[in-house]
Structures are given as structure tokens and as C-alpha cells.
Amino acid sequence: xxxxxxxxxxxxxxxxxxxxxxxxxxxxxxxxxxxxxxxxxxxxxxxxxxxxxxxxxxxxxxxxxxxxxxxxxxxxxxxxxxxxxxxxxxxxxxxxxxxxxxxxxxxxxxxxxxxxxxxxxxxxxxxxxxxxxxxxxxxxxxxxxxxxxxxxxxxxxxxxxxxxxxxxxxxxxxxxxxxxxxxxxxxxxxxxxxxxxxxxxxxxxxxxxxxxxxxxxxxxxxxxxxxxxxxxxxxxxxxxxxxxxxxxxxxxxxxxxxxxxxxxxxxxxxxxxxxxxxxxxxxxxxxxxxxxxxxxxxxxxxxxxxxxxxxxxxxxxxxxxxxxxxxxxxxxxxxxxxxxxxxxxxxxxxxxxxxxxxxxxxxxxxxxxxxxxxxxxxxxxxxxxxxxxxxxxxxxxxxxxxxxxxxxxxxxxxxxxxxxxxxxxxxxxxxxxxxxxxxxx
Length: 441
Prior knowledge:
Layout: E1 16-19, H1 21-30, H2 38-42, E2 46-49, E3 60-63, E4 67-71, E5 77-84, H3 100-112, H4 116-123, E6 138-143, E7 151-158, E8 163-170, E9 173-182, E10 187-194, E11 200-207, E12 211-217, E13 221-229, E14 242-255, E15 260-264, E16 268-274, E17 276-285, H5 301-313, H6 317-332, E18 336-339, E19 346-347, E20 350-351, H7 365-384, H8 388-394, H9 401-418
Antiparallel strand pairs: 1-18, 2-7, 3-4, 4-5, 5-6, 6-11, 7-8, 8-9, 9-10, 10-17, 11-16, 12-13, 13-14, 14-17, 15-16, 19-20
């Protein structure tokens, strides 16, 4: 804990409280909060959306290091935009730019002569020819109904549990969807439910902008096989060699005595009258390493995807989620960060800072921690339910430290979600991209 100036008399001092997780738990216990959930409950870490996504950048990311999705959270329809970390164009090759030394010499000369715009333009030539590009795997598309009149919409990315939750009310029925990407079982799991039985109905399909074929089995599985271009997309895409192959399998498990499933046009499943539904998405590619050409790979992505799915199907949804949370929280909960309210923030008559009593000889650091926690707890809880965009807009007038905490932990969440041992290293945009020709290449 740190402050500027005389801690015994400066009532406007700003406080920062950073501690190891074990110490955070002991403070929570001493304050009378539940030992396991107290700090979580007191300091929620949620990215909150008040409406469905309109653009890709509005969607909420989930990932297990290899398999990622952006959750759009629509009411009439839902879209989970999918990625796999080894689905790229191209193959092994020498990507060294032999002209780079000469270009670098030119850039240095321009800088030495103060010609900075020219140096910037010339520096683009350092990268040489255009590189190969990351490819989207495809989408899970859910269609519920048209012209749904809904209320109480909320979409949340919970950083404590690495889940995205969507809830809304239609009439007197509350609908909910929960999504997560499991690292232990390598699947994306979705549970769709309602608070009254027999009210879950929708159609579901898999789509992709890549070359593909789709079939549906009697086991409620949609199987999508395809390949990405052997070279980065261009106008004569038909001339491209076949690149890395992929397979995605979506499994649908229904709950409810009166639920019915039918196949539409051999490409879509329609479900009616279920109590709840679980969707499991497994995916794999033929990528066999950086030195194996796609045409020479011996890996069968369909066999790999079915192997992954068979293990996940043997688990209940609650078991999958429990394994997911144990795995994720073993990483995420290694760091606890708490920042006090800034000096420009007031709670009633209490101003965050050091009181005369807090500055007395008998006061302890833990006393200060309890006092800060008590003063800020209700405010943090209130902030956590506001749409995050509103908190960002108001930050210029109210420098809300809990928003800084959220940003700090959001960065950690993204890195945990986009790169794990055994996966590809994190690139500029993690594992989330919906563009066959992404500008960042």
C-alpha cells in the first residue's frame, strides 16, 4: 500500500493495494466474506455489453489456446465465429527478405537527413513479399425466430470463469446461453436453456468461407470438412494449390421429453420444444509441423476431431465446465490486483483516503485494507453491472480504478485464451480473425 505525502494527514491520498492471492483470501476471510468467493464477489471482473454485437470487434472472445470463438450474442440469431490456430495459407519456405540490408541502409540515411515520412514509407519494404495469412475456420449459426420482442438483455464476459453469458426475457420466459472454450477437452461448449420447460427451439448450421462440404449424421452431428488455400487469396483463387485441411464437428445434445430434431436440406438441424440443449464443437487440421508441406501431411483431421469429440461427449456439461474452470483458474488466479478509488470519488460522506484514526500508531496495514474494502465494495458491485463502454466514456470524469483492474485482467485473460503450451505462439491478434485476407497478415 502506498500514498503520496504525509499518510497521517493527507485525506486525498491515492491508494494502491497489490497483493498475492493468498493474502487477498486472508483479508476477505477476516472481513467476514466467504473464503473462496469473497474477493470474487466483492470485485467482479466482467466485460458487460448492453446489446448484441453489430461488428466483429463488438463480439466477446473465448479460447483455449488452439480453438477460439467470438460470441455475437444476438436474440433472433446467434453467431459464434470460429478459428483454429494452425489454419493458415502457404507451407514451408524461406521467408527471408534478401533486400532487407539495402532497404535498412536507405531508411537510416533518410532518418539521418531528417526525412522521416520518406523513411517511414521506405521501411515497409523491409518485410519483403507479402506473407501467408491466417484463415477463419467458419461459424456456428443459430436462428431462433424473427421479430422477437425481448427485454432485460445482457451479455457478459466473466474473466473469473472464462465464460460468455447471454440472457434476455421474452414474455415471462428467461432465456440464457453460456459459452466457453475448454482447454482440457479441446472443445467449445455452449448451453442454451430457458427457465420454463419446452421453450428452447432453434435451427443450427456450420458455415465457412473456405472450400468445404457438409453432412449430417444420425447422431445429431454436423460434419464440415474442407481446406484453406495453398497460397494467400488472390483474384485467381481457383489456381491455388490445396492447403491445410480441416474438419469441424458440431454435436447437439437435447434435454426434454418432448424435444424433436429434424434435418433441413442436409445441412441444418432444427430443434423444437427442448428444455435445454448442449452444443459441443471439436475441430482439427492436417498441420503436421512447420517443415511438412500440406500436400504431404499424413494427419487426418476428421479422425482427430472425432477422437476429441468422443471424449467430450462422455462428460456431462457440468463436468466439462468444472474441468475448464479448474484449468483456467490455475493460471488466472495467480495474480490479484486491487486499486483504491481515486481521490475524486466519494461514497456518501466517506472520502477514500487516510483518516486521522487510520494514521494512528495502533492502526495496521490490515485495518486499512478492511476499511478500503468496505468503502469501495458497493461501488465496485454497482460499476460491474454497467455496460463497459459506458464506464470507458465516463472515465475522463471519474478515473475509476476498478476499470483499470478490469483492463489489466482482460489482457491476462486474452493471453491465456490465445496461447497455451503445445499451441502456436500468440500473434498480433491472438487466435481471433474473421477475414480470409486480414490486414495484419
